[in-house]
């Protein structure tokens, strides 16, 4: 306990006055003569011992009353945590304005309560203090030191944000801003619902130099069901193909939900509907099968109905449907007739053959798949172009040449693919098929082990390559016959045999043609179906190179948002950087000069869907483990200003001492008035 006016404690000497009076005015019993002794019957006799007890109690009450009165004048208080306030305060307040804070509370919404609490905190400090405001937006305004008026003004302009950052990122952002202040006393306040999937208590353990207040924004427990994600089982985006979209529906509640209707719309047409049961705290995958009937950019949406949390009820996605794939075959002396029959006579392919010494790079850049058919050597220019092609998401299919030099393996190694080894000249049959590969899945109806396999007379050994390779077919010696290697956004697929009779009958075998055909129609890695707002900041797209200097604009289909993303050319593709400019779940059209070039999908971050938060008691337990510099403050906005003041500047005790002093004097009067008063007989 400390005192604001410690010199007033000199007044404690006043307690000597009642003590001296008591000692010098000690009353003795005297003999009193009465003319009529009958009056003595009406008087209650008192003993000397009882009189002494009464006087001691009165003395004690007088001494205690005077002492409490002097202590009240000295203004005692319990010292708070703000021991260096004289050096200046810099107050950093984080207001969680994510979508989970939009839920109802007794005073309106939890976000409204959080802003009101922040205002009360600001009002508890002086105009000479510095302030920092942080929200989920991480805006430019939040990266500056503010005065008291600016802080209050920014608090009035806080709205719900689609962004959702981890507590580690939030602490790092505000700590960087605090470096601009010259005040030494750092005080953090975090007003949030403290969702368990985003709040990491270990971050505060490393910040022992600051005073930290955790202010929970409680709300009633709400069950929530959301569309978490979606993906295609086999991304064969061709007209008249039947595809299956898998939508993962998550139940964040404590009870099972049954028969949740799930609807799929593509290009504003309902394509499928299903009803699923979802266990408590778990998820179920809903399979939605439909037929692709429109070319170009297809805009899809998976929807459910779940109140009151609705921001995660719709999941937007897009994918491109091309009428045919462009296959460029680079050959040695003459085009391979088997490849020409496979890709040149099928309407789903645009076949472009070219000699390796006369490569048309313009046509090559417009390809979906490039085939190297027994090419003996690769120039540095061609190698550079092929590397850019694969990086941008293209598929490179390689058939070996018996005359190949080191440039071929050099290219493959630069793409983290396997390399060709020795030519093994012995007859082997195919052994296994990877039925789970997207190049075989669903193509074979039976699995009785009696499938006729291709026969090889000689083959190249394929070894090495990066992790993540997929063997599509193997030979009897367990060496790969056809193997795929991922590289950035694209793939490199190597065949152990060439497409001629010297290597056996694989080039004539229908079982070998199945994966080659599917490689053609699945020409590139599946494009990103959608972006998560606040997380995904870039997407690569194919844009026409028409030489226009106009900027690309992303425009929301709902018409309430439009922004210009950063644009960078990366090989055959263009990278669009969003920088948190999208704020609404929707389809965004890519526009340039009034021309529609494509469409992207954006969705809210599903981290906010899980409404499981730390309770105030749980936060207090964690605060006790972190140390004395971390405290939990009740979110009651009526008392929060007083709580902040008491914690920082100390809790005043003088009112209690004043009340105690008055009680002592009243007790003294009661003792003198009622103790020992004679009872009169009626």
Instruction: Return the CATH topology of the largest domain.
Output: Rossmann fold
- Give the CATH superfamily of the largest domain: Class I glutamine amidotransferase (GATase) domain
Weakly predicted, low-confidence segments: none
- The proportion of residues forming helix, as a percent range, comes to 10-25%
- In percent, how much strand structure appears in the residues? 25-35%
Structural class of the helix and strand makeup? alpha/beta
Mean pLDDT: 83
Task: Work out the helix count.
Answer: 14
Straight-line distance between termini? 55 Å
Quickly count the domains: 5
Can you offer a commentary on this structure?
With 682 residues, the protein is of the alpha/beta class. The protein folds into five domains: 2-79 and 653-674, no CATH class; 85-221 and 612-649, Rossmann fold, CATH 3.40.50.410; 225-322, Immunoglobulins (Immunoglobulin-like), CATH 2.60.40; 325-521, Rossmann fold (3-Layer(aba) Sandwich); 531-603, Immunoglobulin-like, CATH 2.60.40. It is built from 14 helices and 36 strands. Helix 2 (48-73) runs antiparallel to helix 14 (654-674). The chain is elongated and about 135 Å long. The two termini are 55 Å apart. The mean pLDDT is 83.
Brief description of this entry?
The protein is built from 14 helices and 36 strands. The model has no long low-confidence stretch (mean pLDDT 83).
Write the topology of this structure.
Blueprint: E1 2-3, H1 16-24, H2 48-73, E2 76-78, E3 89-95, E4 104-105, E5 108-109, H3 110-123, E6 130-134, H4 148-156, H5 167-178, E7 185-192, H6 202-205, E8 211-216, E9 225-232, E10 242-251, E11 257-266, E12 269-278, E13 283-291, E14 296-303, E15 314-321, E16 325-331, H7 337-344, E17 349-355, H8 361-365, E18 369-373, H9 380-391, E19 395-399, H10 406-414, E20 419-424, E21 428-433, E22 455-456, E23 459-463, E24 470-475, E25 480-487, E26 490-495, H11 510-521, E27 531-532, E28 538-541, E29 553-556, E30 562-563, E31 566-570, E32 573-577, E33 586-592, E34 595-603, H12 616-626, E35 630-632, H13 640-649, E36 651-652, H14 654-674
Parallel strand pairs: 3-6, 3-7, 7-8, 8-35, 16-17, 16-18, 18-19, 19-26, 27-34
Antiparallel strand pairs: 1-2, 2-36, 4-5, 9-10, 10-13, 11-12, 11-14, 14-15, 20-23, 21-22, 21-24, 24-25, 25-26, 28-32, 29-30, 29-33, 31-32, 33-34
Helix pairs in contact: 1-2, 2-14, 3-4
